[in-house]
Amino acid sequence: MTSTDIATRDEQNTVATTQAPPAPAPTAGTTSLMAWAQEADLAYQMAQKLAATSFVPQSLRGKPGDITAAILAGAELGLKPMATLKSIDVIQGTPALRAHAMRAIVQQQGHDIELVHSDDTRCVMRGRRNGSENWQEIEWTVDRARLMGLLGKDQWKKNPKGMLIARATGELSRLIASDALHGMPYASEEYEGFTTGQVLPAKAPLSVAAITAPAPAQTAVEAPQQEYSVGRADVDETAGDGVWDEDAVNGSTDWPETAQPGGDQ
Questions:
Q1: Does 236 score more than 50 pLDDT?
Q2: Distant-in-sequence, close-in-space partners of 71: CB < 8 Å, separation ≥ 6
Q3: Is the pTM of this model over 0.85?
Q4: How far is CA 20 from the centre of its chain?
Q5: How many other C-beta atoms lie within 10 A of the C-beta of residue 82?
């Protein structure tokens, strides 16, 4: 055996001994994360197509990233994508469930929620966990809302009955089934500045031509000409015959030749 053969064999042994060990099998958490990443990618593709449609609420319109987050959050709550877009609002950067969606999720988990009484001044709701015999009761009144400074808000002025129900829903759901809400324990109606799809008119985009264009000339508004009347003082009283005296009129210093706007009268 030559020295060249020995050197070649040593190099092969060195390569064999320095090869990296086989990669460990993916854990359940890694597999789940990879599946979630694929789901997020599909949700984003869907969000890009939906962002400009009327199916998306105003708070999410034109925001594919926020729509994606809403769809993924809704999936964790058991909501399908289109149901999610009608159930989740993003208010001041925080996602929140609407009250009707919160009740639906809690009831879907087998918990009970009942409306006992509701009018424009008072709402009473009760609920209990699945399998429990004990009912929890929540009462919301306009007096309570007044103490919290809520009555001056637009939604409370327009729909006090619905807002009382929404407040009672959020409080009761947190009390009996907070585990069913997955990090979104507050109803949209409980947040400051909540609005239901208020659409502001779109403004035309500014252009260089619009900015640099000269201001339109203002049309001068002519002042109404003052009317003059000739009284008996313009008549030659000495004549005594009441005949119009043209010379007296032409020689009068009170009679302007032409009434001009702003001229001396």
A1: no
A2: 43, 46, 47, 81, 84, 85
A3: no
A4: 54
A5: 14
